[in-house]
Amino acid sequence: MNLVIEHKERLNKASNLMIEHDVSTLLITPGANLRYLTGYKAKNLERLTCLILQENESPKLIVPRLEKLAAIESGINEIDVEIITWDETESAFEKVKRPKNSGRFAVDSNMNSSKLLNFQQLFADSKFTDAGLIMNELRSFKSSYEIDQLLTAGKYIDQVHRAIPSLFQIGDSEIMLAKKIENLIIEAGHESVDFTIVASGKNSASPHHEPGETVIKKGDVLVIDIGGTTPSGYCSDSTRTYVVGECSPEFQSKYEILKEAQELSIQAVSNDFSAEQLDAVSRDHLRKNDLAEYFIHRTGHGIGMETHEEPYIVHGNKNQIKDGNAFSIEPGFYIEGKYGARIEDIVIKNGGKSVNCNNTTKDLVFI
Amino acid sequence: MNLVIEHKERLNKASNLMIEHDVSTLLITPGANLRYLTGYKAKNLERLTCLILQENESPKLIVPRLEKLAAIESGINEIDVEIITWDETESAFEKVKRPKNSGRFAVDSNMNSSKLLNFQQLFADSKFTDAGLIMNELRSFKSSYEIDQLLTAGKYIDQVHRAIPSLFQIGDSEIMLAKKIENLIIEAGHESVDFTIVASGKNSASPHHEPGETVIKKGDVLVIDIGGTTPSGYCSDSTRTYVVGECSPEFQSKYEILKEAQELSIQAVSNDFSAEQLDAVSRDHLRKNDLAEYFIHRTGHGIGMETHEEPYIVHGNKNQIKDGNAFSIEPGFYIEGKYGARIEDIVIKNGGKSVNCNNTTKDLVFI
After folding, report:
1. Same domain (yes/no): A306, A177
2. Which of B23, B113, B186 to substitute to test the interface with A, most A CBs within 10 Å?
3. In this predicted complex, what is the ipTM?
4. Which of A21, B22, B337, B348 has the fewest Cβ atoms nearer than 10 Å?
5. E strands, chain A, where?
6. pLDDT tens digits for B164-211?
């Protein structure tokens, strides 16, 4: 895989989308967008590092002088991005040229507000908009290279879920189990751990519970939602629900309905659906079974170089789900004071069908 | 230590500073500012979580419904912050009330630009400014509780530097040594690793070098700049320079000058200096010895709940260094193609004197 060609293509596509969206200047700061366009995994410092695309100008990267070598090491000049350094006593913002035409400035969705406010002051007569309108369009359609990366990430996280029954020991607190899982996330091939939700007993009713000192005990439901980033920068994300020993028939029957809902949603990916139509599939099935009120979040989120990106599978998102979209399907139910459950896979729409990145069992896992 | 009282005091001080700075609405998103004001260590999601301070209103926290339990677990309602949840299909931004008076909106320096652009569109007739003018003033003056936390963080990272000679083995690459250091950063008491710069040989000339596959060899200079965050949320940061076996007399004599420069700067903390006057101390000493051109960054940065925060010890910063300021003193020299060196301590100005958080030797460490 020649990433130089991939990055050059991405930069070209971004330039074309700028024209389409009447954007004169695209400003991209460290984070997933910068890495996506150039391969440069820059630190997000208070000092300005910024990729600048402007009409009839070659791409430029403004970097603090002390980041110059790191930028060069990333190979960014192999894709014809000119590096412009600034010194500690200079204004980095003034290194951005006033654009020749009248179009808008589009700024990285994740640019720190302090930097955006600086740019807005400097270019006070220009309009500013969210670069998401360009970057999300680009990044939500995965190339075949990217699909491979997501499949690899999925294999890594599946390995961790498969090992959880043997990792768990009676007496473990949530945080103790989370630490063991984190080690395995790295051992499985990820470069970093992004999150490790281990929610036991009543805590499983909090979808984003932080693992704490709660000791996991017999009869507990365990919602384990984990993800990491691979060395190539792609994210994994998968949730499975476990039970320590045995659970109530009441919980088990609710879980079976959830499993049906999740499977119906995955089947529906091959339909010609909008994101909100897809969101409705799990929700409708849960509604028929009086569980919809406990499904308090959207069905899913896009994934790629960030764990959460476009397309969001949520009511109100009328965009069609298209080939190349990669996203989670993760219905759940959360009953405060009792328990919760969630099942999450990453799927990619490819050739009109859904390709599943995660392939561990969706049955309740008794440990 | 009653953190409830500490947080209430911080919220009060923020409200007072709002009046002083003609700010009607202070908007704080997940990150160090939110944790500083409320103790809530929230995830920075694409979904809006936002603390709102407005005149004559009690503090409010807007959270996505699925983060509600996590917010409550943080104890945020013990400090009288009202939690307002929003559902997936609602506009979170519209939960912010139009302020009664005409003052400006001050937004978290690290708020994502996509969120700031949303607020600017919704309150199109209001002026927006960087909340740094309130938060930096607050956070740059450390309470006695915070000084204790920084001293503890310093002890943790010193423990790691002291162990490096025994961690290193012939044959280690930068990244192998970095991994061992990362494990020790956690074992020493930190909750997370923030950065691990291991720059060997010619790489030491890049101040922010990412550890790579380069095998560390005899005769190499090693710049090791490491830091982590303690469970209470305070950061450590210390750099020492090591030599594998032996180095050239030329490098050694330059290093001795650097050591003098660093010590002169620390002594100067007790003077009634501005930040830029303090920056000049190391720089002048290096200049007298023909090394100033290789000292390509500022002398230091403030530190607390973020590794880099106010006050910055840099030319152009005319603010006085005052009691309660905590910052790094880290002169270095970087000669491209040859080698580099840096010595970094965290110091706190307290009772007119400098208190040093780091106490390992500043001599070259031969390993």
Report:
1. yes
2. B113
3. 0.89
4. B337
5. 23-28, 50-54, 60-64, 82-86, 104-107, 128-130, 192-200, 221-229, 238-243, 300-302, 309-313, 326-329, 332-335, 339-342, 345-350, 353-356, 365-366
6. 999 999 999 999 999 999 999 999 999 999 999 999 999 999 888 889
